[in-house]
TrEMBL record:
GO terms for molecular function: DNA binding; DNA-binding transcription factor activity. Keywords: DNA-binding, Glycerol metabolism, Transcription, Transcription regulation. This is Glycerol operon regulatory protein. GO terms for biological process: glycerol metabolic process; negative regulation of DNA-templated transcription. It comes from Nocardia stercoris.
Length: 266
């Protein structure tokens, strides 16, 4: 049974299907065929063709005349540019670049989208990989920060399950994740030590609003050799100082904190 045959027949169905197709392009650096899109989205091929025609006509997609494959279109590029500026991300880039230069490691800024942390700015977006950077919340320092500084109930944490293991160090138990989030909140930063990929260490802190919630997560990523144990507190403090600056450039005055950030406890 395809996914669309199991969906409720309501007015929002076409919207959900369209968004499912658009999200398929974030996972591929290349043009994608209609049949592959149908398979990934779990839709019937006839439904997929109809939606692709509508998205192509409105500029959300383009179709290569030689291969008949699809790619993201100019309307998506236009909206992405508008969103980047309206969210203030163009003002965040210099702060991230300066942080990266001071620390010698990669600096990234992410937000929560469902069960993932989505990187919107920073060094991980450089290069020619052509993929969206969407990471599971439970296995990343970015995700732990976004969860720790939120109003999560135990039921909402359980709803993240199954917590897929990406390495042998990934937290896969919801109870253990809740305990980890408490430690993160107490320490003032999160650590990913080989939980999402072997040989990668990440330190992350929240960009907080006036309600003490994480609007963004800011991470420093490198190898354990570049971020050794005895310098964790320094990296976390550098990230926290940058996060304080980002509050000013990313949040309107009415949403900014007035109290000082709690100290880092490594």
């Amino acid at each position: 049974m395809t996914r669309d045959s199991a969906q409720p027949r309501d007015g929002a169905q076409a919207v959900h299907r369209t968004l499912a197709l658009l999200q398929c392009f974030g996972d591929s650096p290349h043009d994608v065929s209609a049949s592959e899109l149908a398979r990934r989205a779990g839709l019937a091929l006839s439904t997929t063709h109809r939606l692709l025609q509508a998205m192509t006509a409105t500029g959300f997609l383009e179709q290569d005349p030689d291969t008949a494959r699809y790619r993201l279109g100019p309307t998506v590029a236009e909206l992405g540019r508008v969103a980047r500026h309206r969210r203030g991300l163009h003002r965040a880039e210099p702060e991230l670049a300066a942080l990266s230069q001071r620390t010698g490691v990669t600096a990234d800024l992410a937000v929560r989208v469902g069960a993932h942390a989505v990187i919107l700015a920073g060094g991980s977006l450089d290069g020619d990989h052509g993929r969206a950077l969407r990471r599971p919340l439970h296995s990343t320092a970015l995700g732990k920060v976004l969860l720790a500084w939120s109003d999560l109930s135990d039921e909402q944490i359980a709803a993240l399950s199954p917590l897929a293991p990406l390495t042998d160090r990934t937290i896969t138990d919801p109870v253990a994740l809740r305990a980890e989030l408490s430690r993160v909140r107490a320490a003032g930063f999160a650590l990913n030590d080989g939980e999402s990929a072997s040989g990668v260490r990440t330190v992350a802190v929240p960009v907080l609003d006036a309600a003490d919630r994480a609007c963004f997560a800011l991470a420093l990523r490198a190898s354990p050799a570049s971020i050794p144990d005895h310098r964790l507190a320094w990296f976390a403090a550098e990230a926290a100082a940058c996060a304080d600056a980002l509050e000013v450039v990313l949040l309107p005055p009415t949403r900014r904190r007035t109290a000082a950030r709690p100290p880092i406890r490594a």
